[in-house]
Amino acid sequence: MNKAELVDAIADKSGIAKSTVDEVIKAMTETVEAEVAKGDKISIPGFISFQKVRRAARTGRNPRTGETINIPASATVKVTAGARLKSSVK
Question: Which domain holds residue 81?
């Protein structure tokens, strides 16, 4: 399901105009991006959570040459499915 299909499904289920649903989804994604970038954790209980995590610097291997390389520290996003979402896909 892509974004347009998601907007259609939510609009049909809720009775809200598609343009309004699209604006809400856009506002939600922008808010999640901004808050996670600041280091805050976003959690929708039972559904999903987003959290910024740090990866430590480490060494790795270039798979083509076998040469040891240094991988610098970095930040990434950890996304965790909630219990209700996990149980719905069983």
Answer: 41-90
Pull the structure tokens for residue 32: 């999640």
Same domain, 49 and 61: yes
Q: Distances from the Cα of 79 to the Cαs of 10, 11, 36, 44, in angstroms?
A: 22, 26, 11, 11
pLDDT of residue 90: 86
Report CA 28 to chain centroid distance, whole Å: 11
Cα–Cα separations (whole angstroms), residue 10 to 1, 23, 53, 60, 74: 12, 12, 31, 44, 36
**How many structural domains are present in the chain?**
2
- Domain identity same for 62 and 83: yes
Q: How far is CA 90 from CA 48, 63, 79, in A?
A: 16, 36, 19
**Banded pLDDT at 29 (limits 50, 70, 90):** very high
In this structure, are residues 46 and 81 in contact, taking their beta carbons and an 8 Å threshold? no
Q: Is the domain of 86 the same as that of 48?
A: yes
